[in-house]
Write a structure and sequence with these properties.
The protein is an all-beta fold. The chain is built from one helix and 38 strands.
Length: 458
């Protein structure tokens, strides 16, 4: 006998020697029982029919048919003597056919099909965890394709794990899941089946994020192996300095500094006088601050500068503007008050609106306004529009002065949107600003529900 199976399956040699026929066809071919087992046939530029011998005289007969053609349109169409088409072997492909005395069977339908052009070995599918397509041992442990592009791993006849284009995950709800996507502070890499927006993410180098519902809840860094940041609606952990202002102690319709916390807050502004500016205690412990009704009149409210950008200050504030037209309002951290939004303090980072739209993001768009060491006011788009008389919750995190972070209504603004920076090692204070940007009898009111601040203790 001559020829190697390695001539049929490249890379596999010295297994078994079989007779073979190498032939270039010029017409259809009919095999007989005395033909060689291995048929290496070149269709020679056209599809060719290959007819197998009659079943009654072919009991236990086996043919290995290999298409040596190299281009499309050179198929071997395998037929019984009926004739019934049993299958088509394309260029570079092989089929094994066996007769049981009554029927010719293409073993590639129940065994392995090799495609030398594609460089693939194709196993017949058995989309069943009990009998996986590629099985080991007793046959109930292995791999199978449960649906298009979903690979299952079966163990003891039960699908235990799945792999698709996005995840490697346990085959049960809320089991472990590993994402292929880039991890961020809001996109976990280690997550759960059917709850892929909850898990563990990567906020930055050496910074781990615990995420729930796509929102970062806790950040842990390598710094003394401590919890670096906890996102809570209430006070943070005891290891951080915590300051909260609910404005419950302000007296209605009086000058702000006459209230009980005048030792903390300092008020000022343009055309600032008792007759023009009012501070009113709103319902539920809120503060309404209203500027005077003259073009560019403003009210500023500056707290004590006992926060420092070297101590990782974070602020959360809930506020609203009565009318977004011809208005500027901001809440954040600032080293000093500034009467006009056009000339912000030298060191500050605030979030709000500026309906003059000089920044070009839109008159109703929520923006950040920053000034790093008197470099000039810089605006960044927060990607959310403000709505009249509707509260927003703003969170500002200045832990990284080169990459401030902002959340609007508990959704973090993409880091790529925030290009402004903040001066390091600088004392800053909580700051509130409201300004009327048009002449005439127009006033604008900012309502503050609360301001909460945290930073590392000194």
């Amino acid at each position: 006998m001559g020829g190697l199976i390695g001539n049929i399956l490249p890379g596999i040699t010295n297994i078994l020697k079989l007779d073979q026929n190498v032939e270039t066809l010029s017409a259809n071919k009919t095999l007989v029982v005395t033909d060689m087992v291995v048929q290496k046939l070149d269709p020679n530029g056209a599809d060719r029919d290959v007819t197998l011998p009659a079943e009654a005289i072919s009991t236990d007969l086996l043919f290995w048919l290999y298409n040596t053609g190299g281009t499309a349109g050179e198929d071997l169409v395998i037929k019984s003597d009926a004739p019934t088409t049993l299958g088509t072997i394309g260029p570079g492909q092989m089929g094994i056919f066996h007769c049981d005395g009554t029927t010719w069977k293409w073993l590639s339908d129940t065994g392995i099909k090799y495609d030398s052009v594609a460089g693939s070995v194709i196993f017949p599918q058995s989309n069943d965890a009990a009998t996986p397509t590629l099985a080991f041992g007793d046959g109930n442990t292995g791999f199978f394709e449960s649906s298009d592009n979903v690979l299952d791993i079966s163990i003891t006849g039960i699908s235990r794990w799945k792999i698709d284009s996005q995840f490697l995950y346990a085959a049960l709800n809320y089991g472990a899941s590993l994402s292929k996507n880039a991890s961020t502070s809001t996109t976990p890499a280690l997550t759960f089946t059917s709850d892929e927006d909850t898990g563990i993410g990567h906020a930055a180098a050496d910074a781990l994020s615990l995420i729930a519902g796509g929102v970062e809840g806790i950040r842990i860094t390598e710094n003394s192996s401590k919890i670096d940041e906890i996102k809570l609606n209430g006070p943070r952990v005891d290891s951080l300095y915590t300051w909260i202002e609910d404005f419950d102690d302000e007296v209605a319709a009086v000058q702000f500094e006459a209230g009980l916390v005048a030792d903390f807050w300092v008020t000022a502004g343009t055309n600032y006088a008792a007759a023009n500016v009012t501070y009113t205690a709103g319902s539920g412990g809120t503060l309404d601050a209203k500027c005077a009704a003259v073009d560019n009149d403003s009210v500023t409210i500056l707290g004590v500068t006992n926060f420092n950008t070297d101590q990782n200050p974070i602020m959360e504030a809930r506020f609203k503007i009565d009318d977004k037209a011809t208005a500027a309002c901001f809440v954040g951290f600032s080293a000093a008050a500034f009467a006009d939004k056009a000339t912000p303090a030298n060191d500050m980072f605030c979030v709000g609106i500026d309906s003059d739209n000089g920044h070009g993001f839109g008159a109703t768009q929520i923006v950040s306004l920053a000034n790093d060491a008197a470099a000039g006011g810089d605006y960044d788009d927060m990607g959310v529009a403000i709505v009249n008389d509707t509260y927003i919750i703003v969170k500002i995190d200045l832990t990284d002065t080169e990459q401030p972070r902002v959340w609007i209504n508990n959704t973090e603004v993409a880091a790529g949107n925030i290009l402004s920076t903040v001066q390091a090692a600088t004392a800053v204070a909580p700051y509130i600003h409201v300004q009327n940007l048009a002449g005439g009898a127009i006033q604008r009111t900012i309502t503050i529900d609360y301001i909460k601040c945290w930073q590392d203790r000194g």
